[in-house]
Write a structure and sequence with these properties.
The structure holds two protein chains of two kinds. By secondary structure, chain A is α+β, with helices and mostly antiparallel strands. Chain A is built from 18 helices and 21 strands. In chain A, β6, α5 and β7 form a beta-alpha-beta unit. Chain A is globular. By secondary structure, chain B is an alpha/beta fold. Chain B folds into two domains: 139 residues, Aldolase class I (TIM Barrel), CATH 3.20.20.70; 58 residues, no CATH class. Chain B has an eight-stranded mixed beta sheet with strand order 2-1-8-7-6-5-4-3. Classes of the chains: A alpha+beta, B alpha/beta.
Chain lengths: 551, 200
């Protein structure tokens, strides 16, 4: 993974010193809360319902075991013993004291971590495919370009006060696990007719109040032009994006209002002026960064080790876990293991300090000391030898990190909701917990098959409900929590936005509504059809009929 | 409002005119874009230096053809959270070749000074209550920059390409990369010359 050199370290250390000064000025009353707010937000520090919340950047979801141990330490020392992994591949600590934040940032800096640009109207932490480097279908490792973008965007002097926040996602594979079509900029690597790898550039995707699927403004961008093209897009947005209305200030609104053709023309014109300038990426720089993401020292293994095959046959529960939580690896004899942070009835994305420490140890022992965080709020060990899977699984069971539900209905995404968040209209976590318990039977989950349930506690859509196969949005109706349900959303390469089924359900009825939707699917599905396939075939009506007949 | 440069407070010889203010016979004046567009000939015929004030929604392309007429261009930050003028500043310096004084006015706060400097601003109208001595330190909050911008600072990407023995942070005399920069004002003065990003 990427390692800081003296330059990276100096910048992060100077940021800690700067923020320490800003906090001191705030505490002394030299800064008003209005003046302090954008400064703390640029360091990921939010004022939530009960306390300050600190959002720590995990660039493109990659962590070393040492970094994860530091996060465990922070959870223990400065918080209540847990952290929450988010849909942005970051981690949030929910119970933070303002005065301690400079010390926390200083501790993070010792392990090459920070909270820079995890909030505020700037270019946010860049996200990428959590299977980067190990996916069989990968063209190039997206972490290389994510790191190049991270450095270019960090403290960018022109783009630190944009009209609104700005999110960039990168995928290096045809199968999009990074949801690039619902980001302000999505970069999808592919090959042109000459066989050269480059990026399809998509702009203006997003969720929130106005969900939009991103539009392609350049089908193929050579890699050397990556930064100049991004700079051109950001410059057009910074100049023309609306600043008079919070809800109309994202780039998707600009693209929509001027039209994608005109927007593309503006970007291309700006880019022509700067494309051959100092932002051109030399191949040597790409190779230098690529060196940091070189494959670990894999050993030559049989792809079907006899002990693993025997364990699969012997232990039904192990086999079930392998089926759901283990993904094929590009190297023979290795596997990608997803650790479920979705225990039945648990809080999606939460991990205790003890779990984090234990996962760090397991990463050291079984996976070259590296961990990934997924936007679906789970953790991944990317490089586990198949013959180690059984021992790893046994340990994960003890840690309650082996729930065999990845990609299934129990693998629910949920934002923190009204239990923590100052923006929320309704609680998300208890709904997720109730659905999870209701669908707790693992055999049934397997029968239902792939089903992504995503829950947001407000229209800002941190829980990605618009792109859930079943999406649930908390709304406030005269002081009471209600839940609007959408069907048919998807965040992959065939992205789509969910359709609203009808009037919202009460907190008491929403779990039953999900049951009804699933039961309806089970009665009408054909062959091995996934929920999403069935929905796309038959549409909203059959579900609607059952839902509103039943309630 | 006090005016500062990276070197410290400076006298401000300029008078900023509102549209309804009468045109003084002489002296250095900064006028609005509307006045410039309406009274261009009279303003050019007048003795004394001329400056222009652009609101954040007035792009510099509107004065691109007349860049050499102005000794000061003042770009407004109506709120410090409105960052349009950062792009305007870079375009004026890098696209239109403006070499005169580029002044940040409006809601100019200490914690944005270094961003402004990097985008080509070289004078800053600050609040009357600003503690100038501590504000000046903000120009040096960061001794390094990852990305090239309008200032002359050598970005990290280019520094990395230098042989270790020749690595210096900008114009600093010290060799070691992580050292904080000494007080070399020339190093933080804005420049219209862009440093090479990669130096391969």
């Amino acid at each position: 993974m990427y390692r800081y050199d003296n330059y990276d370290q100096t910048l992060v250390d100077e940021r800690v010193a700067q923020f320490r000064g800003q906090v001191a000025r705030r505490v002394a009353g030299d800064l008003t809360e209005d003046e302090f707010k954008p400064l703390r937000l640029m360091n990921g520090l939010y004022l939530q319902l009960h306390a300050y919340m600190l959002r720590v950047a995990i660039p493109y979801g990659t962590l070393s075991s040492k970094q994860l141990r530091k996060l465990a330490h922070i959870a223990r020392r400065y918080d209540k013993g847990y952290g929450h992994f988010t849909t942005r591949q970051n981690i949030q600590f929910n119970w933070i004291n303002l005065e301690e934040t400079p010390d926390i940032l200083a501790e993070l800096a010792t392990v090459e971590m920070h909270a820079i640009q995890t909030s505020g109207n700037c270019i946010r932490n860049v996200t990428a495919d959590h299977f980067a480097g190990v996916a069989a279908d990968e063209i190039e490792d997206p972490r290389i370009y994510s790191e190049i973008i991270r450095q270019w965007s960090t403290f960018h002097p022109e783009f630190s006060f944009l009209p609104r926040k700005f999110k960039i996602a990168v995928t290096g594979s045809p199968h999009d696990r990074a949801a690039v079509k619902v980001h302000d900029i999505g970069l999808r690597m592919h090959r042109n007719e000459a066989g050269e790898a480059g990026f399809e550039v998509l702009v203006g995707g997003g969720q929130g109040r106005t969900p939009v699927i991103a539009k392609t403004i350049r089908p193929f961008l050579p890699k050397r032009h990556l930064l100049s093209y991004l700079e051109a897009i950001l410059r057009i947005y910074n100049q023309l994006g609306r600043r008079d209305n919070l809800y109309k200030s994202r780039i998707k609104i600009l693209v929509d209002s001027v039209g994608v053709d005109r927007f593309t023309q503006l970007v291309e014109e700006e880019w022509q002026q700067i494309r051959d300038g100092y932002l051109e990426l030399p191949a040597a720089e790409i190779e230098r960064i690529r060196g940091y993401f070189a494959p670990p020292p894999y050993r030559a293994f049989d792809d079907k080790p006899a002990d693993f095959e025997a364990q699969l046959r012997r232990d039904f529960r192990f086999g079930r876990w392998v089926r759901t939580n283990v993904t094929p690896h590009k190297r023979p004899g290795y596997a990608i293991v997803t650790l479920s942070l979705k225990p039945v009835g648990g809080i999606p994305g939460d991990a205790t300090d003890a779990q984090m420490d234990a996962v760090a140890d397991l990463a050291d022992r079984y996976s070259f000391g590296e961990i990934r965080v997924t936007h679906e709020q789970n953790l991944v060990l990317t490089d586990v030898a198949k013959s180690d899977l059984y021992a790893l699984w046994q340990r994960l069971v003890e840690l309650e990190l082996a729930t065999p539900n990845i990609g299934l209905a129990g693998d629910i995404i949920a934002c923190p909701g009204l239990d923590y968040c100052a923006l929320a209209n309704a609680r998300s976590i208890p709904v997720a917990q109730r659905i999870s318990r209701q669908l707790g039977d693992l055999t049934r989950l397997l029968d239902i098959g792939e089903l992504k349930i995503k829950i947001s506690g407000c229209i800002n859509a941190c829980g990605h409900h618009h792109v859930g196969h079943i999406g649930i949005l908390g709304v406030d109706k005269k002081g009471e929590e209600f839940y609007q349900v959408t069907l048919g959303g998807s965040a992959d390469e065939n992205a789509s936005l969910g359709d609203i089924v009808g009037p919202a359900f009460s907190a008491d009825n929403v779990v039953g509504a999900v049951e009804t939707i699933i039961d309806t699917y089970l009665t009408v599905r054909q062959g091995g059809e996934r929920f999403l396939d069935t929905y796309r075939r038959i549409g909203l009506a059959p579900f609607k009929e059952k839902l509103y007949a039943a309630h | 409002m006090p005016l500062i440069r990276t070197t410290g407070p400076v006298e401000d010889p300029w008078t900023t005119l509102k549209d309804e203010d009468p045109l003084p016979a002489d002296g250095a004046i900064i006028v609005t874009l509307a006045r410039w567009q309406a009274n261009r000939d009279a303003l050019l015929a007048r003795p004394g230096p001329l400056g222009i004030f652009l609101k954040s929604d007035q792009p510099p392309s509107l004065i691109a053809a007349d860049i050499e007429r102005f000794d000061v261009i003042a770009l407004n930050f109506p709120k410090f959270t409105n960052g349009r003028a950062y792009s305007s500043a870079r375009l004026l310096r890098e696209r239109y070749g403006y070499r005169g004084e580029l002044r940040a006015v409006g809601n100019v706060l200490r914690d944005q000074l270094q961003f402004m400097l990097r985008c080509g601003f070289d004078s800053f109208e600050v609040s009357a209550t600003a503690d100038v001595a501590t504000w000046l330190k903000a120009f040096r909050d960061f001794s390094l920059a990852y990305q090239p911008a309008t200032d002359a600072r050598t970005p990290v990407t280019a520094l990395r390409q230098r042989p270790a023995s020749a690595r210096r942070i900008d114009h600093d005399e010290e060799d070691a990369p992580p050292a904080r920069r000494s007080d070399d004002d020339a190093a933080v003065e804005a420049s219209v010359v862009c440093a090479g990003y990669w130096a391969y």
